[in-house]
User: Which sequence fits this backbone?
């Protein structure tokens, strides 16, 4: 089995959706296909859906599977990239799934898998930053918070492929708990889950927000974009909650700069895509306050422009790098 | 100028003392000499004292400077290892000192300098762990808190030589401030300075401790060893303060494991030398509670046995590595 083509497919596989993108040999994105994950149908069904997303995207691009060299995929949770297994992925309920082997069987193509945030970091580093910095910290704020480290030009895997879990860093040991995240962890303070939770609690406490006019009293189906719209209409509650999340993000950024000394820190993920422009000045200010004078305070802190395409781009980069 | 010999001198240069050790070609420690730093006498005088400590140690070992290949030195603060400059070192009041050049002029030998905690990490990694793990995080609890990262067998310098400043990680954004450290930083919660501060505050608040019997009501000249003695006599206040510092250290250890995925975490420094056995179980317990199941929770967390000699050992390793 070998991919004979020179195109790549990158897949971003998450708790709610599967996004597959077809890339040209020079990493131009040709077409994408999005399917919902439907994790509740079980592992087998989801793997079949991933394979279908790949086939459909290739067809959308007027290509044939034979024109694909390899498929890369970013999966949520802990991923054994070398062994091709998802060790566990809480938000789809997977444990020890040999995803690489199962997809290769279905597609007849080489498949390479990686943690979704590590894949996104690869995408940001190689596609967006053209592999120029020596080192980069990628931080992705979405439903949860994840990250990926590029050190000396290489993705840092860590023992047991466990490096880069920046969302689990405790930054406020006395802080609030949200969802599954550890008490006071970065994720429990700045993920979309945490932000939505704080807004809902504030509304229950009787605080006013335009969001209840927009979405109804229970704030059902709230999305990050709703927060952006509320912010731009001058909503004080949303402003406060987003500023708090940004301040916490600034602390996490400073921590990572102190420990790793990267050349650049890039922020991405759904929360940043929607609210990054509003959050960046607060993040930068808080990080600068905490950094040592004369050393780390000239590290660039940027917003990724890849948005939703960071994951598929990075997965395609992975496919290329591993199939060489 | 070239060192013709095959022995090495390692120097640990700190706020209160200068320790120089002479090592055989196989890194057996032959002799040490300790001088007080006397930072108040100015940069020139301190550099002269460092040179004297090196000469005296070589003489103590019945050797001649000609039998030394190179000198390595760990200095406090931010060190430009390649340029041979101490960028700044708060606790001796130095800024932008060309220490390498000045010492080479005085000694007629190649001198290599590094941040003191990075040097200690090198010593622990190469001398104590025989360079076996692929990656190691070294954490040193003393007057302040510093660290050194070994990734893929190499010391990770970071941009501007600023990596490894683990003491500046904020782990409790609502936490107490101590000394110069940032609010809620690991250093402000678990350094000797922080521990002593908490004990003194508690005594002022009227809490009882054997320490006042041992040292008088103002707890003058308190040392880490006094805390160990108090602990072993069942002192409840010291027990509580040390347990808190150990709990905070456990949080920092878990954070570094999440981000870096090291094979081993080694704890050292004066606080650990005196109190490590009492602190380790608390540190390990807290770290395990915070780590993700199935991935990082089998990372080994150890106490360095090098004690006060970690710095000079690592400086000697540096001297060897750089003079090859």
Assistant:
């Amino acid at each position: 089995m070998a991919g004979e083509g020179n195109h790549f497919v990158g897949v971003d596989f998450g708790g709610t959706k599967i996004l597959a993108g077809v890339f040209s040999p020079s990493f131009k994105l040709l077409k994408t296909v999005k399917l919902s994950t439907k994790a509740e149908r079980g592992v087998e069904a989801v793997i079949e859906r991933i394979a279908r997303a790949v086939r459909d995207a290739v067809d959308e691009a007027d290509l044939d599977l034979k024109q694909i060299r390899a498929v890369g995929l970013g999966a949520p949770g802990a991923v054994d990239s070398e062994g091709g297994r998802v060790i566990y992925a809480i938000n789809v309920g997977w444990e020890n799934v040999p995803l690489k082997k199962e997809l290769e069987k279905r597609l007849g193509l080489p498949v390479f898998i990686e943690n979704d945030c590590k894949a996104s970091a690869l995408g940001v580093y190689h596609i967006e930053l053209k592999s120029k910095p020596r080192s980069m910290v990628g931080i992705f704020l979405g439903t949860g918070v994840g990250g990926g480290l590029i050190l000396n030009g290489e993705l840092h895997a860590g023992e047991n492929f466990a490096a880069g879990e920046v969302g689990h860093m405790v930054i406020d040991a006395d802080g609030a708990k949200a969802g599954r995240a550890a008490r006071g962890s970065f994720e429990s303070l700045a993920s979309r889950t945490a932000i939505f939770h704080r807004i809902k609690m504030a509304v229950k406490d009787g605080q006013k927000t335009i969001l209840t006019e927009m979405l109804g009293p229970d704030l059902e189906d709230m999305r990050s974009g709703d927060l952006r719209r509320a912010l731009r209409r001058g909503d004080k509650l949303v402003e406060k909650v987003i500023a708090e999340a940004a301040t916490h993000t600034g602390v996490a950024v400073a921590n990572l700069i102190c420990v790793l000394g990267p050349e650049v820190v890039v922020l991405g993920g759904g929360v940043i895509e929607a609210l990054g422009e509003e959050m960046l000045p607060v993040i930068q200010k808080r990080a600068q306050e905490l950094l040592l004078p004369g050393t780390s305070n000239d590290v660039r802190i940027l917003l990724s422009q890849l948005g939703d395409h960071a994951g598929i781009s990075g997965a395609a980069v992975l496919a290329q790098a591993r199939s060489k």
Remarks:
- Residues 236-260 of chain A form the longest helix (25 residues).
- Chain A touches chain B through 50 residues (CB under 8 Å).
